[in-house]
Amino acid sequence: MKISNNWLKDFIKTDIKTERIGEFLTDIGLEVEGIEKFESIKGSLERIVVGKVLTCEKHPNADKLNKTTVDVGTGKILNIVCGAPNVAEGQTVPVAVVGTKIYAKDGSFFEIKEAKIRGEVSQGMICAEDELGLSDDHGGIMVLDETRYEVGKKFADYFELANDEVFEIGLTPNRTDAMSHYGVARDLFAYLSTNQQKSEFNKVSSEVLNNEGSHNFSLEVENTDLTPRYIGAVIENVKVAESPAWLKDRLKAIGLSPINNVVDITNYILHGLGQPLHAFDGDKIEGRKLKVGTVAEGTKFTTLDGVERTLNGSEIIIKDGNDNPLCIAGVFGGANSGVSTETKTIFLESAYFNPVAVRKAAKAHGLNTDASFRFERGVDPNITRTALTHAVKLISELAEGKLVGEILEEYPNKIKDNYVIIRFSKIEQILGTKIHREKVKEILKALDIQVLNEIQNGFEVSVPAYRADVTREIDIIEELLRIYGYNKIDAPQKISFTPVKLNAKDQDELENSWARTLQSLGFNEVMNNSLTSVKDETDAVKLLNPLSNDLAFMRKSLLEGLLQNAIYNINRKNQDIKFFEFGKIYHKKEKYEERKQLAILVSGRDVAENWLQPKSATGFYNLKAYVKVLLEKLAVDYKEIASSDGRFSDALEYEINGETVVRIGKVAPQMLKDFDIDQDCFYAEIELELAQKLRSENELKFKDIPKFNKIRRDLALLIDKNVQYQDLYQTAKKNKSPFIKNINLFDVYEGKNLPEGKKSYAMSFELLNEEKTLEEKEIASVMESLIKSFQKEFNAELRS
């Protein structure tokens, strides 16, 4: 959300510098993500001066150029080469002197420098209107009225230029009260006034309006639950035209494009006071009657964007006397009832609509407007008339309109403020500090929270209806803390807690153990949104009311989120990726499925670059090793099988008791291309609930450190290329000898001096008898047993 500093100062008077205001706003929860400079004319015409063309003659070396001399009031006559067809001697013109920056529409610029153009010195530029940002006209240079413009004077002095500083606020969805300049000013004043900062707040109230004659419009609200409050004013003799510069500058500063004076006024009130308004062309309202209700399901309605929409019957609809739809209330206007240059009579609407109904309508039709954004979260029901009267006054001033007749209003059941009891003991418990009662009262008053009654341990208070997010005691405590100041709460020097022993069979214990293991191996944990978009909707769980099309489905896999994390880091020069995430995935098959997984992604280097290992690209086997470290904590045997998972180009699975627990592979090139990743990525996912279910239930046992040394023996085996190390490993594990403690593959060779279709595996075996030193004949017996198994199972040969 963009907030103009100039606009903010319409409501709050303070001498505090912009940067400091940004800090205060962040302190009270309105986080300022940046402050941008706004100029109504880019560059603010800096270094543009009024000059007079003294001489003008053809350039000796170019047919379309002219060589001029120009007086800019400094006493030095400038030589300027100009290509405009209308330049002539005696003209008064705007001149960009050396050092001036000329801006393009996209914000880029070039700087005027003294240069030679076709052999002639040029010491500036005579400007056209588009070059100065005054219009799009590039038909020639701008010729000024010599009776008005004085040679040597700054050109900017003849314009009312708007310069502003704009806060970019990352507003949280619950703070609907701060979705306007007035709301931000109100919150800022609450902080300043209770923290000894000089300021003055201009509280808005309804304007006193003079109406003329009468009108024949009527109003009917069919369902007050959907529309608790509705107000309308009839304004005649309106002249729809361009808005004045000050109004256009206000809207441009916050990123809005001016349209016409009437529409701009409604946008001005929306962003100024936070109340959405809508202006109907009064002459297009059949029967001179507005009805607020619903229409039959299947009714066709064309909105302002020219799209014909089919209504579902639950939307709040503004209708005319013949029940023709004019507007989806709180969301979007109709194409046939909007204000145009021919409009003479306006019916101006200001209302409070049911937030849930507005949200459902907006999501059903895929619309997200400034009005729906506010109505969905709940606007201030008590500012409805105030906003309307301010808009009427502006229309009368800027569009020459006249308010006729009485303002129409339906508000049968007043929306009440929230009643809450707040206890001092609870404040102290939550904040960890004691705030004086009078300070609490001061902050509540600054927040418009009225103290109704003082009770023994606190206050009975009334929270204004515009604070839709403050309904409980804990909400008020949070408000007190925001304004009192988070920085004033000292962090405790001592933290006491009761340690809780985790059950070794508990899944949380397994997750924590795996997380600590991965962190010790250099991994970082990430968390991604479980809402996403999908290309293939097969088995996907779709939301009924998605926030947007990009968040319309529950994720089917954790891979996509990790790839987004990867490209985000790669684009910021962090190509070495070691990420893991605990998260749930969702499928809709015969029934809805929800499973929790641990996902791991690696890419780039396995270890940081150093003089010993300048290159250490991670790979499939690195990830496989990390997964095995985790599986060892399950204390169960697992089987490795090939996988045909379409997400991977090379993949395998680990099975425990016939159930797939792990999938691991090299991410397919097409998937990497979809995310613009141009380096290999390797991914593994572990089914958490299944791993917990299958993990060994054996209690941990401790044993003495062996008193005898391990013995290592190596075997170099010549085997067929289709034999995998896992096959050899499983065969060795089945050996009946109790002395085999560790098995390792330390060399693989394929190439010269080997028979066709063969490869060489070098394996090491660590042997240990924990009760005595192994004798050579015992070692030989074990090794012979292993060799026979390899020969029998894989036709292996020993290499000498």
| Helix run count | 19
Describe the largest sheet.
7 strands, mixed
The proportion of strand residues reads: 25-35%
N-C termini distance: 75 Å
Q: Give the overall average pLDDT.
A: 90
> How many β strands by DSSP?
41
Short description:
This protein is 24% helix and 29% strand. It has 800 residues and is an alpha+beta fold. The two termini are 75 Å apart.
Secondary structure: elements and pairs:
Layout lengths: L1 E3 H4 L3 E2 L4 H10 L3 E9 L8 E11 L7 E6 L5 E6 L9 E6 L3 E3 L5 E3 L3 E3 L2 E3 L1 E3 L2 H4 L30 E8 L10 H13 L6 E2 L16 E4 L7 E8 L8 H9 L7 H13 L3 E5 L7 E5 L6 E3 L5 E3 L6 E3 L5 E4 L3 E2 L12 E7 L2 H10 L5 H6 L8 H15 L3 E9 L7 E6 H8 L5 H10 L3 E6 L2 E6 L9 H12 L22 H14 L3 E2 L5 E2 L20 E2 L4 H12 L6 E12 L3 E12 L16 H12 L7 E4 L5 E9 L2 E9 L1 H6 L6 E7 H7 L16 E10 L4 H9 L6 E10 L8 E10 L8 H19 L2 E2 L2
Helix pairs in contact: 5-6, 6-9
